[in-house]
Write a structure and sequence with these properties.
317 residues, Arc Repressor Mutant, subunit A, SH3 type barrels, 3 domains, five-stranded antiparallel sheet, 9 helices, 26% strand, Transcriptional_repressor_C
């Protein structure tokens, strides 16, 4: 067993800090070698706290994303899809498109990352993706999977809500069209991108779920409405596997049932919303979501059908 693996085992078993000197003596190595092993473990994603005159402590609330673990947890077990976890990537969506273009991949193949340097949201927005504090994952879908491209994002939202709700202490709801909210904070976003000119008409669905991003981090990025999934100990590998499993199950479900579930858990219905009509901002009450996933808003004497875009919900949202 390598020194770093022995050190990791010692840190996992310890309930307090372990000094570098103590570790070095037990392994008959130098303190510099201990430091190199700790650095290697940190590079693998483990959060090891170092405090002067106290030593090292493993933050066990954090566990690295692991592709093999995700694959072993997802259903069905015989899914032929491939998966990879990267330490850092510009965008998991872009990376998955690149990999599929180089070597065609089967549906439900995924790319996940500990950090995105250029995470993307809808309408050109960025998605704050700091290291190890969220699930940043993209999954590939080809035309043998989906029947209605217009409902892919809605289907993904239902799957993501199911997966997130399993690990949340508080209710998780969907905000039309592609966000998840909990405790009045946006905890997740979904971005669907497609290349319908390519063989098999590939679609990539990217999700970003905040699992441990601090409120201070959001405030520094001027994102006061953002928050993290509130669970006692969110297991990101389980969260990823549950999302992939639920997405697979949702695409085998009658779209009418998916729409029914989407409406049931949608927080905008019955609330006053603001929306844009060209350069004009209008206000109305969100009445319903039709069978195409469009939002129907009553604005005075008008009924407006919103096919895309964003709405703002009045109140503490």
């Amino acid at each position: 067993m390598a020194n770093k693996d022995i050190i990791l085992k010692k840190l996992k078993e310890s309930e307090d800090f372990l000094s570098g000197e103590e570790i070095a003596e037990s392994l008959h190595i130098t303190r510099a070698s201990v430091w190199q092993s700790v650095k290697a473990l940190r590079d693998e994603g483990y959060r090891i706290v170092a405090v002067t005159n106290r030593g090292y402590f493993l933050d066990t609330d954090y566990a690295p994303l692991d592709a093999d673990t995700i694959r072993s947890m997802r259903a069905p077990k015989d899914m032929a899809a491939e998966g990879i976890v990267l330490q850092t990537v510009d965008s998991t969506n872009d990376e998955l498109f690149r990999r599929n273009k180089k070597t065609p991949l089967p549906s439900y193949s995924f790319v996940a990352a500990e950090k995105q340097t250029a995470g993307k949201g809808r309408v050109g927005k960025s998605f704050h993706s700091p290291f190890g504090t969220g699930l940043y994952l993209s999954v590939l879908l080809k035309d043998e999977v989906y029947v209605r491209p217009d409902l892919i994002t809605i289907t993904a939202a239902v799957a993501a809500r199911r997966a997130a709700a399993r690990q949340s202490e508080l209710p998780v709801e969907i905000k039309w069209v592609n966000d998840l909210y909990s405790a009045h904070k946006k905890i997740a976003g979904i971005l669907t991108e497609a290349d319908f000119s390519a063989p098999s008409r590939p679609v990539v669905v990217g999700i970003g779920i905040n699992t441990a991003t601090s409120q201070e981090s959001f405030e520094r990025k001027q994102l006061p409405r953002a928050g993290s999934l509130r669970g006692t100990a969110v297991d990101r590998n389980r969260l990823a596997a549950d999302f992939l499993s639920e997405l697979h199950a949702c695409f085998l479900t009658d779209p009418r049932d998916i729409l029914k579930e989407y409406r049931t858990h949608n927080l905008v219905l019955g609330r006053t919303v603001r929306f844009s009509e060209g350069d004009i901002v209008s206000t109305g009450v969100a009445e319903s979501i039709d069978d195409n996933g469009h939002l129907i808003v009553r604005a005075g004497t008008r009924r407006v059908t919103l096919r895309a875009g964003e709405v703002s919900v009045e109140g503490d949202w």
